[in-house]
Write a structure and sequence with these properties.
With 62 residues, this protein is an all-beta fold. The protein has a domain of 29 residues. The chain is 0% helix and 35% strand. It has a three-stranded antiparallel beta sheet with strand order 1-2-3, with no helix packed on it. It is elongated. Bound molecules: zinc ion.
């Protein structure tokens, strides 16, 4: 039995796949509130979510 807290990363309601690890990213659209990401899940359903600006980690640069 696995007991992991996935509250920060929503999962697909159909198959339980973590949405932040999609097998296929269809498109990304920048908006004023963040990045809207469209992906196709492993179960074949298209998912879309918003990555808020504040949640994106800065990897480097100024
Ligand atoms: Zn799925």
């Amino acid at each position: 039995m696995t007991a992991r807290t996935e509250s920060q990363h929503p999962t697909c309601p159909d198959c339980g796949w973590p949405l932040h690890r999609p097998p296929e990213t269809l498109s990304r659209h920048r908006t004023s509130e963040g990045t809207v990401v469209y992906t196709r899940c492993v179960c074949g359903r298209v998912r879309a979510w918003l990555e808020p600006v504040g949640a994106i980690r800065l990897l480097g640069g100024a």
